[in-house]
Write a structure and sequence with these properties.
The structure holds two protein chains of two kinds. Chain A is mostly beta strands. Chain A has one helix and eight strands. Chain A is globular and about 35 Å long. Chain B is built from two helices and three strands; from the N terminus they run βββαα. Classes of the chains: A mainly beta, B alpha+beta. Chain A: InterPro entries: Flagellar_assembly_factor_FliW, Flagellar_assmbl_FliW_dom_sf.
């Protein structure tokens, strides 16, 4: 699998469930950035499949709260990259995305965190088939 | 765990800048107001549990699964 690896991403808060992993690499898995992995640099075998949401959820525009903007030291909207964590099934139809808790990345300083969006309509396991 | 009894309208202060106020007691639960700095994340515990479970489910998918999804995505885009 060819992979273009971006510099180290620093999770300012670890992913819930994975308190010991703070340094990740964002790896482009398909050459177009539509499918990426967040690969832990702290544990060899830990990675998450992530994707920019617009491919699957064109209307998805999560609101990023002030605390996150402060935590990630975001100064410009253009620096913000939103990724959703995918829970892959055997096919795209059986795969889901976590829209409730996107990973927000400040590309300027490579600080990131998984944010809980305060919207009861968003699910942690939204079908990709949408 | 510190256990306190509070009446409606009474508060508990945590540290210098977090205040928790009991707003209302109903038959099926209580309403709590939380006044905290924006830098302090306040979340429902069950949501964090759900998020942890979802992250664990999503962790470390196999190469085969990722390859087949990437291939499916490429075909779909054509």
């Amino acid at each position: 699998m060819s992979a273009q690896t971006l510099p180290v991403i620093d999770l300012v808060h670890p992913l819930p469930g994975f308190p010991d992993d703070r340094r990740f690499a964002l790896v482009d898995l398909d050459g177009s950035g539509q499918l990426c992995s967040l690969t832990s640099l702290d544990h060899d075998d830990l990675r998450f499949l992530v994707a920019p949401p617009n491919t699957f959820f064109p209307d998805y525009t999560p609101e990023i709260d002030d605390a996150t903007i402060a935590d990630l030291d975001i100064s410009s909207v253009e620096d913000v990259m939103v990724l959703v964590v995918l829970n892959p099934g055997e096919t795209l139809l059986t795969s889901t995305a976590n829209l409730k808790a996107p990973v927000v990345l400040n590309t300027a300083n490579r600080r990131a965190c998984q944010v809980i969006v305060d919207d009861a309509d968003l699910s942690v396991s939204a079908p990709l088939s949408a | 765990m510190l256990v306190l009894s509070r009446r409606v309208g009474e508060s508990v202060v945590i540290g210098d800048d977090i205040t928790i106020t009991i707003l209302e007691v109903r038959s099926d639960g209580i309403r709590v107001g939380i006044d905290a700095p924006r830098s302090v994340a306040v979340h429902r515990a069950e949501l964090l549990v759900e998020l942890e479970a979802s992250n664990r489910d999503a962790a470390s998918p196999s190469d085969a699964k990722i390859s087949s999804l990437a291939e499916e995505l490429r075909r779909r885009k054509r």
